[in-house]
């Protein structure tokens, strides 16, 4: 009896041991690396290329070059957009994260509020090459105004209006310079019977939708937060801006109602690349998708996303892009700073600009993402002169999700045959505003 | 039961309707996996006009599916083995002994089935991080962390099902073994377990399916090195394209081992569930 | 679920009794410890994975755990019942959203459970008498349940696309039932889609369980009944249904718990673009926590959900238990 109980106890503890042994063999490469001379940084990169694997292929030689120059190894993990935000949240919560990571620059102020990221104060800024090397608007996205930013720009992006040259030529049209021209052109190019539409909208993507809510309101001179960081969603300019964008599907009928189901920008860009639509508004990284889907580089042109005639401000984009942050409790602060310096130096920017179709975030750099000089000039112009940063307040993430999702619902209503009036827009924005107020 | 004409018509109707309901997605999955990307992006067609096996080749390149497959297999198999072993011990205790705390244990364990995963997702993550910091056992981003999480997820149901099954095995049998000089553990391994084989198999299948299909915790607890299929499959929708044909091909390939395993052992599963439920 | 286990101890514990019989050389202390030893691994894991995290979760529901404090939990201010107050106040947008989501979930869960039971019963009865090809049909019917959840749901997502999906192809192009292509993943139809997908995955489980239950009904009862002239329907009502009572009790409870806290179906089916009509409660809480970074508020909502599930389960077990004792 005693023996048998002992056997049972042994069996029980053996289970525990075998589990523990399992752990020994698994851990290792994902840890934060050793201390002392042999330094390894963990780097989380966002998905910029055609697939996670493609990102890895592009980044690996760049990181190897960094290792050669500095002796610091970099452990790369590419994270898809589906997972990035959750991964950053859990890392923030637990204090166990990478040393350096990519963030969507619109999250910068929200992430800054967590206090989990290293502020780029004067010393840190000097270590990465000085703040003067960056395009000022791009650097402004790094965090709240008046505080040292907790992120610095890495890849610049901006919206532009892509149009199909052949379709425009066939209809005898010129690329639009105002919102009104854009709508008229789109209407001429819309023929639902032939399944051809003037525009494609990512109307089911709350992140895309909220960008357009922001840009259209900005064209009306409206802001989403006041100086004290209080939400001001229900202003007239905001409501009219949102409605103007909704009306592309509702009143102007230049977008297929099916677009309400397009839950990411990829789907609308695919429609454009497959020549089902004449125009699409997208960030410049659409280039690689368009080409990957079979449209040749010379077949499309790009003009700034137009504001209505007599608009308060000719805003054509928010300052879009990817920023780099350092985790505050990194054990390799100096190495991390060296890495940020390396990633934002002119050489690396040039190397990565092409495969990731990004705009340079450095002052004097030339865009290399396209060989089309006109397109490069357009996007540089938009990025440098016609962009406005999204609200740099901690509640920015809530603004994105509440307003974006409200727009999803309104598009859904329009697509399923309903109508959305200005009053309803205002009511929806009021609800969103309440949610933001309750959350902060 | 007598088969009347009416019953035959009833059976015909039920089997046709349910058969179509079950088959439609399976058919779509299979045929879409054989279409080129351009075709799955266009309007649906019943029969692929351009048959291709490319999705089954490309899916390994678009996403490191092979690695995810290995991860899912190791995690699911280890979680299953451990879960079954632990459930057997616990179920034996619950079924064959009367001891203080017994009903507290069964009630508590069963009520964990009601815990919404969202509630303890973040705390669990935090506890894992603390274990790593204090004991040096890496649980976040490793297979070990997933294994112990998943094995615990299937424990309550497994213990309950096995205890029910053990209860249905006449106690006279263990008593005979005890009289023959075996201890309780001997009675378990020589008498109860062989008689409860269907129940054990059923529990093993259940545990495996739980681990193989879990999504929520995998989305937070996995990093590149231990990512499982449930999260990996989402990566076919990338910045530039949604590779529907490859998603369907991968879904098919990922499902095959579980479905075959389940179907081979379904008889035992039925028997195991019944013993648990009917008791 | 404790229906099954509660009766067991009354019948005694032969292990203990038999062990005591074995005479003086045996040490009763060890055998008293044995059950605890056997339970130890299970208890440890339950504590680590379920119980302690749950308690931490409950603690979270009482603090103001927003993004300002998430990196430094100990600094998070005590919120008292504030998170709960906001969650149940139906006059503010947070409480209103939670209530709506709760309503959607109740409808979803009720309809799915009822339909899953009906389909499962219909199929189990149809497959009760042997016929050629029976095991093939049974195998086919079980496939949706065996399929990993995400694989099945992803396929449905593909099928429910408005322009390129198979569902609209069947309804509009093939059968011509509808002239306009409806949306399935947004607007009011989202709930229908959600139920359909969940049903597709769950009804085989009901089928499996009911089929197993049917097998345990002795054939001769049916024979006696048909000698008495009872038709198929009456046999079903008078024999099948009452015999399946214990199975049904457990089945309905399990299906309810599964559907009510279903996360996978809305998460995989809708992704980030979930429509209000498909806003199931666990998904709602997930968004409330992760999208707005308000983990305290999310935890309070989860605790409310947990309390609700426990009350329903407890009431269900009490009512059904009393009734079966009376019967």
Tell me what the structure shows:
- The complex is a heterotrimer of chains A (440), B (279) and C (327).
- Chain A is an alpha/beta fold.
- Chain A contains 17 helices and 11 strands.
- In chain A, strand 1, helix 2 (52-70) and strand 2 (73-79) form a beta-alpha-beta unit.
- In chain A, 56% of the residues are buried.
- Chain B is an all-alpha fold.
- Helices cover 75% and strands 0% of the residues of chain B.
- Chain B contains 14 helices and no strands.
- Chain C has helices at 2-6, 14-21, 28-60, 82-88, 93-126, 134-146, 149-159, 166-174, 189-215, 219-227, 232-243, 245-260, 264-270, 281-290, 295-326.
- Chain C has 327 residues and is mainly α.
- At the B-C interface, helix 1, helix 4, helix 5, helix 6 and helix 7 of B face helix 1, helix 2, helix 3, helix 5 and helix 6 of C.
Jot down its keywords.
heterotrimer, B: 279 residues, mainly alpha, MetI-like fold, 14 helices, 75% helix, C: 327 residues, 2 domains, globular, disordered N terminus
Give the structure's gist in a few sentences.
The complex is a heterotrimer of chains A (440), B (279) and C (327). Chain B has 279 residues and is an all-alpha fold. Chain B has 14 helices and no strands.
The parts of chain B where pLDDT drops under 50 for at least 5 residues are: none
- Name the overall outline of chain B: globular
The total tally of domains of chain B equals 1
Number of self-contained structural domains of chain C: 2
Number of strands of chain C: 0
Quickly name the level 1 CATH class of the largest domain in chain C: Mainly Alpha
Give the SSE map.
The complex is a heterotrimer of chains A (440), B (279) and C (327).
Chain A: H1 2-26, E1 40-46, H2 52-70, E2 73-79, H3 81-94, E3 100-104, H4 108-114, H5 122-127, H6 136-140, E4 152-157, E5 159-164, H7 165-170, H8 179-188, E6 197-200, H9 206-219, H10 236-250, H11 265-273, E7 277-283, H12 286-292, E8 300-303, E9 317-318, E10 320-326, H13 333-343, H14 346-353, H15 373-385, E11 387-388, H16 396-415, H17 422-439
Parallel strand pairs in A: 1-2, 1-3, 6-7, 9-11
Antiparallel strand pairs in A: 3-10, 4-10, 5-7, 5-8
Chain B: H1 5-32, H2 37-41, H3 54-62, H4 65-96, H5 102-111, H6 117-135, H7 143-167, H8 171-179, H9 184-195, H10 197-213, H11 216-221, H12 229-232, H13 244-264, H14 266-278
Chain C: H1 2-6, H2 14-21, H3 28-60, H4 82-88, H5 93-126, H6 134-146, H7 149-159, H8 166-174, H9 189-215, H10 219-227, H11 232-243, H12 245-260, H13 264-270, H14 281-290, H15 295-326
Helix pairs in contact in C: 3-15, 4-15, 5-9, 5-12, 6-9, 7-13, 9-12, 12-15, 14-15
